[in-house]
Amino acid sequence: xxxxxxxxxxxxxxxxxxxxxxxxxxxxxxxxxxxxxxxxxxxxxxxxxxxxxxxxxxxxxxxxxxxxxxxxxxxxxxxxxxxxxxxxxxxxxxxxxxxxxxxxxxxxxxxxxxxxxxxxxxxxxxxxxxxxxxxxxxxxxxxxxxxxxxxxxxxxxxxxxxxxxxxxxxxxxxxxxxxxxxxxxxxxxxxxxxxxxxxxxxxxxxxxxxxxxxxxxxxxxxxxxxxxxxxxxxxxxxxxxxxxxxxxxxxxxxxxxxxxxxxxxxxxxxxxxxxxxxxxxxxxxxxxxxxxxxxxxxxxxxxxxxxxx
Length: 309
Prior knowledge:
Layout: E1 5-11, E2 21-28, E3 31-40, H1 43-61, H2 68-86, E4 95-96, E5 98-104, E6 107-113, E7 117-122, E8 125-128, H3 135-141, H4 147-152, E9 172-177, E10 183-187, H5 189-192, H6 197-206, H7 209-222, E11 229-235, H8 248-253, E12 259-260, H9 277-307
Antiparallel strand pairs: 1-11, 2-3, 3-4, 3-5, 5-6, 6-9, 7-8, 7-10, 9-12, 10-11
Helix pairs in contact: 1-2, 6-7
C-alpha cells in the first residue's frame, strides 16, 4: 500500500532473562495485518505461545478477503493451535495475549484478547481502543478500583482472558473508518504499564513510526523495564482508497468512531460470539438473582420451622 509506513520493536526488558513477546506483520493489497502477543506459562512455553499466535493469525489473514469474520477465524485458529499445544504436560499453563490490527482501507478492524493494547492517534489526540482483559481492569470498570489503585495493585498482572486457555476463544472485535494520517500503536503491557498516555502521545505525534517505536521501547527500559516490551506503530497514508465492504454500514454510521461489532452485524454468521463487558454482565446478574432466591428459601424454611406448632 503506497504511503503506508510502519515499524516494530521488541526487547526483553531489564528484568526478564528472555523475551516472551512476539510481533509480526503481513502486507496485503488492501493494507496489511499487524499483531503483537505477550506469552505466558514460563520461559519456553510463553515464547512458543506468542510466536504461534502471531504466525497462525498472519498465515490465515494472507490470501483471503478481509472481513470481521475472517479476522475472528484467525484468532480462533490461533487459540486452537495453542490450546492443543498446552495439553502436553510440559506446556501446562501456556497462553498468550494477542492484539491484531487488520487494515482493509479505508477501514480498520481490531481483534483483541488479553491486556496487550491498541491505541489510535487522530488529529493530535490519543485514544485507547481496546479494553484490558485483566482482574484490575474489570474492577476499574465496575467502579471498585480507581485507575491509580489498579496501577499498583498486587494483582495488576493477572489476566482473565488469553488465547489457549479455553477450547473456544473469547475475542473482542471492533472496527472504525480510518482517516488520512491516522496512526495506530499496538503494544504489550511492558510498554503501556510503564509509560503514561501523555508520553505515548508526545512520541507518536513528534516522530515517524520507526523512531517512535524505538524511542517508546527505550523509554520503557529507561524507566525500569520490568517486563518484555514491544511496540508496533502504523501510520496511514495521507490519501486513502475509496470503497465499501458488506460490514461498512455500522462503521460509516459511527462517523469514524470505533464500533464494537456484534453477532448479527455481519452478513454471514460469525464463528464466535463477541463477548463484551455488557454482554457478560447478565451472567453475573442471573447468578446473583439465584443466590438471593436461595437465601430467601432458606430463611423461609427456618421461619416455617420456628412458627410451626
